[in-house]
Design brief:
The protein is mainly beta. The protein has 1 helix and 26 strands.
Length: 294
């Protein structure tokens, strides 16, 4: 499991990356298999390969780190300052050779990991880009959303690559995105008022929206197996899971501060891990809750 953190040291924000072979040991630093301190706060981090880590930095840099020495060290491979403000989110495009970064400078950039260069730089948004998400199957496709209220679907094969995507909540700024790994026409959007919307890309009439949270949605994650559908976390300090019929099957309010990240277990379809500003890493047994409510 990859865990990223930021802390204020004096007047400066510093970051860190931690890798745990046993997720239940997190966030105890004594049980991590590898860890490193970064020179700026870590805003987002994604696995690119089994050993490669993509990082969004609040310094405006996109960084690539790699596990080495039998996965006991995390080594920096490159750090590029192409954005003019905080990098808010990163995602890995299908194929794993290219990545996307979104920034508070209103731009979206596509990177080639091998050359460490920017392939495309776009400025279709008029305010901060807060999230990006990639298609699981098409390297040319990804989503972005911004405080300008827009969700854009990008297809880099087109002369004009960006198109507006209706998500059914026109008066709320989108804050979070997710793309289903198996139902590749299905995407989800969370917004600043706590709504979660799911739609089929080819069918605007398919939009489903639910007021899942009372505050800003900070993260979304589709499950790729079982009857669970989508999990969400929020600044209302709660964790929720909806099933295929958009009914709530799980709710947890254990976190005592904003919940900022989530991930389904790759080995156990009923385990959802969440992290928050309360310095807690929680492993939720969602299948237990579903069985007890049906």
């Amino acid at each position: 499991m990859l865990l990223a953190a930021s802390s204020l040291t004096g007047r400066l924000w510093m970051g860190s990356l931690w890798v745990y072979k046993n997720p239940s040991s997190a966030p105890n630093e004594g049980f991590c298999t590898a860890g490193v301190q970064t020179e700026a706060g870590v805003v987002d981090a994604k696995w690119v390969t089994d050993t490669g880590i993509l990082v969004a930095s609040d310094s405006g840099a996109v960084e690539f780190w790699e596990l080495s020495e039998n996965e006991t060290l995390i080594v920096n491979k490159f750090c590029r300052y192409e954005h003019e403000d905080i990098v808010s989110k990163v995602c890995v495009l299908a194929g794993g050779l290219q990545v996307v970064s979104g920034s508070m400078d209103c731009s979206v950039k596509v990177w080639d990991l091998q050359t460490q260069m920017v392939l495309n730089s776009y400025r279709a948004h008029t305010r901060d880009v807060v999230c990006v998400a990639s298609s699981p199957t098409e390297e040319a496709l990804f989503l972005s959303c911004s405080r300008d209220g827009k969700v854009l679907l990008w297809d880099r094969r087109n002369p004009k690559p960006a198109s507006w995507l209706d998500v059914g909540v026109p008066d709320c700024s989108p804050t979070s995105l997710a793309w289903h790994s198996q139902q590749t026409d299905t995407v989800a959007v969370g917004d600043e008022d706590g709504n979660v919307s799911v739609r089929k890309l080819q069918n605007p009439e398919s939009i489903q929206t639910s007021a899942v949270h009372t505050h800003y949605v900070t993260g979304l994650a589709f499950s790729s197996h079982g009857s669970y559908f989508i999990a969400s976390v929020s600044e209302d300090c709660s964790v929720a899971v909806l099933d295929q019929s958009f009914s709530e099957v799980f709710r947890d309010r254990t976190h005592q501060d904003f919940v900022k990240g989530l991930s389904w277990s790759p080995t156990d379809p009923g385990i959802l891990t969440t992290v928050g500003w309360d310095h807690r890493v929680l492993h939720h047994s969602v299948h237990h809750m579903e069985n007890s409510t049906t």
